[in-house]
Amino acid sequence: MSEIRRDPISKSWIILATERAKRSSDFMEIQREEKTAKSKCPFCGKGEMTEPLDSFAVWPGERVGEEKPIWKTRVLPNKFPALYPSVELVQDSEKGLYHFLSGTGGHEVIVDSPAHDETFATMSLDQLRAIINTYAHRYKFWKLDPRIAYVLVFRNYKRAAGASLSHPHSQVIATPIIPPRISEEMDQVKDYYEQNDSCVFCDILKLEMEDKAKRKVFENDTMFAFCPFASRIPFEICIAPKEHEGSMKNLPKNQVQDLAETLSAVFKKLAKLLNDPAYNFSIHVAPLKTPDLVYYHWHIEILPRLTIAAGFEWGSGIYINVVSPEKAAKELRETDEAF
Amino acid sequence: MSEIRRDPISKSWIILATERAKRSSDFMEIQREEKTAKSKCPFCGKGEMTEPLDSFAVWPGERVGEEKPIWKTRVLPNKFPALYPSVELVQDSEKGLYHFLSGTGGHEVIVDSPAHDETFATMSLDQLRAIINTYAHRYKFWKLDPRIAYVLVFRNYKRAAGASLSHPHSQVIATPIIPPRISEEMDQVKDYYEQNDSCVFCDILKLEMEDKAKRKVFENDTMFAFCPFASRIPFEICIAPKEHEGSMKNLPKNQVQDLAETLSAVFKKLAKLLNDPAYNFSIHVAPLKTPDLVYYHWHIEILPRLTIAAGFEWGSGIYINVVSPEKAAKELRETDEAF
Fold it and tell me: Which CATH superfamily is A3-20+33-178 part of?
């Protein structure tokens, strides 16, 4: 079981998930880069490791009279979860100073493709659409659980970004608290809305679209990808819908198609320009229990892991970025996305 | 030159220091672990690389009639600074959305020892005292500059923690803004003070000292080292003075001695238990321009880099820690600090 603790000084939360330490890859092996052999891959659907996982949701979930279901993506409970849906939600504190919650929540793996060696840069648009639909499905699924305040969908690619298996996969963590990064964003964008009567994301997109392509990476009818003005790390990319929307759970069909196309173009460019770098990918949506918000606009953050966050970043919260977003965007724009 | 930018959504700051990208070690080489050869080390005080650096402050700064000064620590301007003292402080914004400041500030290297191969775990107490006195000296130095709001002293040890040179060294970054991690801490501890009429750090120390050594790592007369209740990563350690003090710039002699002893013990334990791990080290003090505060208590954060912060941490700001601070502290307490 796990536990959620709040730091009395920063008021930020941590999840204490000591059972994950059994995963030897989590610990003391920061330097080693290794591909999971296909024959030992639990996500390829072969071998004993798959058995306990196989019963969970499958997208699109059709069986066609065969022994195994035909699937494009699968949603499996994480074998070493950070949070557990079966744990009753309780909270307590020690002498009014240390607050903690039970480790209630969810932690899932989305197997992004049956093909062991695919990446977002090489997948078909059809496969990327299936992944986007799976993400949307998980928001809807967890919204039904009254204990869950937030769902973070994310993706770690390659060991330098924290991935322990190389088969393409995403992860979903459903938490009983609103994560600090989201609540800070919510506070700030609400302030901006109250002062300016407009969504700050909408205003940013308007500026970036007009801005003679200084930071634009890619766009189509409904999606826009750019390197943010205050990029924390080299080649940071943000993808957002041009039209205001708080969450991606009800994405219209044309936006699913446009997002698939944008992901494909952006990851092809990254792979080509930066030798298929490790990256972290996360989707920021409004908290599950809020009604549709005029001021929160969903977006995707892509953080290539080319540098190491060091003592200054940890200690101060200020990032030192050595590549300007204007230069990064120019190089990405000029990189042909054809493979 | 560099530039300081504020993100319009999170309101957090980044430093854009594109000249640092010339440092090839900063980029695309995340996996490589390498020791700087002694013969090529700019901090050993030999060879042409030392020349432009040699004129800066030296601690204790005595010359004894020889060609080269005898020194225990040296303070040098960083060769690839993130911020520059010679730049006039200006701020501006783009359409009220994007705020930026000139890259005004300071970025220094403290050469922690003349000996190329020493570490905090192997240094003499005398050498550690010299380093602590050098840190205090830099707070006093930068306090005189009216443009500087904060000084962060930090240390990256080994490449996995972001170090690019292996000769023992610390760094100092002086910023014209109060870093977000510090201003958040300030807000929270002020709230706590107003509600409880006491310093939250003092209350934490009281609890940790009473707490049947559950999270204690080491203590002496004036210093206390422990694994924090909400440790973000395995074996995170906090060192704080038992007596309330906002900054370490005027540390009494007995506290300098006790801190040297604590650093020595803590780093000997870490090195022995975890095979001399990479770590980040930073000192949190109250902002330079505030008077002595009843609610802010200086402390040192030590973050061994045994795991990789991945997509969930980046996206949510919540850390998943796989080793409980109670277990980490027990193992560290039971590790003999004798070498």
Answer: HIT-like (3.30.428.10)
